[in-house]
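Task: sequence design from structure.
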């Protein structure tokens, strides 16, 4: 009995020690890298930028948040909003904005019962319509944190840069769910930004992501991931981003904020959709992403 008890204690301690070591590695290697990272000065050359937003029945959100994108302090950029089969007032809202903002362009996808599509198709339409090589993506329920969002993101592009990963947070509201959503978003950002800093990029978020149009077509767009419900952002990054062609930009002026889920059911549905992309990640990224949460759970147990 004493021997069995000692054996159990040894196994428990070994698991604890291993999980602790993994957690310490992730914190020191990746998470700490974000807080210690010093953004380079960036390019002073104001490269032309195309901002792409897909909207389906987002009239109210466009009224609220599109002005923050259209009123950026940047000399050469266009905003392309793809009206994706909307059945609300999106068309009228965009029409009103077109009169005020000459750098706004719109593309409309009409509803066809014989043809169904996911967000990637709308994204593709926006990319085709873009007139510039640097593409900057956000969502219709997103607002830019400052008038320097485009400038900060674009400044990280140089001759070697194909991707710039940004931070997309959520608006602060009342309630425990909102606190958890913001915490979850922050910890995920620590991971993908920290890994990118350490030359191991594996994903970005469509709320704040930039890459080159030329690379998109060179790599045949969304390729084998076209049928996946989600992944218009992270799967393209996972397939093509490298330590040598990826930069990060997460200073406060470069943040975006999105409307968070208001119910647990809505949040779970969103998470399930995001999880559909995980099987398509590279094997090494799957290993990293599984190892960290498993070791965290074992550590606390």
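Answer:
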């Amino acid at each position: 009995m004493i021997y069995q008890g000692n054996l159990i204690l040894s196994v428990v301690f070994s698991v604890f020690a291993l999980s602790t070591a993994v957690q310490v590695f992730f914190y020191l290697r990746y998470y700490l890298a974000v807080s210690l990272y010093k953004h380079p000065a960036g390019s002073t050359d104001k490269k032309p930028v195309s901002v792409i937003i897909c909207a389906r029945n987002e009239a109210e959100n466009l009224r609220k948040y599109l002005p923050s994108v259209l009123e950026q302090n940047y000399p050469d950029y266009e905003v392309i909003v793809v009206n994706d089969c909307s059945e609300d007032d999106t068309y009228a809202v965009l029409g009103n904005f077109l009169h005020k903002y000459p750098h706004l362009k719109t593309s409309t996808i009409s509803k066809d019962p014989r043809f169904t599509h996911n967000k990637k198709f709308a994204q593709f339409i926006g990319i085709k319509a873009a007139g510039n090589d640097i593409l900057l993506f956000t969502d219709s329920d997103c607002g830019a944190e400052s008038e320097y969002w485009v400038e900060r993101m674009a400044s990280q592009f140089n001759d070697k840069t194909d991707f710039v990963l940004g931070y997309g947070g959520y608006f602060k509201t009342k309630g425990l769910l909102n606190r958890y959503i913001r915490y979850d978003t922050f910890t995920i950002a620590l991971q993908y930004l920290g890994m990118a800093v350490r030359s191991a990029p594996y994903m970005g978020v469509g709320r704040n992501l930039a890459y080159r149009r030329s690379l998109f077509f060179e790599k045949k767009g969304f390729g084998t991931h076209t049928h996946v419900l989600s992944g218009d952002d992270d799967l393209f990054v996972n397939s093509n981003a490298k330590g040598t062609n990826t930069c990060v930009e997460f200073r406060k002026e470069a943040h975006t904020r999105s409307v968070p889920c208001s119910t647990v059911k809505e949040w779970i549905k969103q998470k399930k959709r995001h999880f559909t992309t995980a099987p398509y990640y590279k094997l090494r990224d799957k290993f990293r992403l599984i190892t960290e949460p498993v070791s965290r759970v074992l550590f606390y147990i």
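The chain is about 45% helix and 15% strand.
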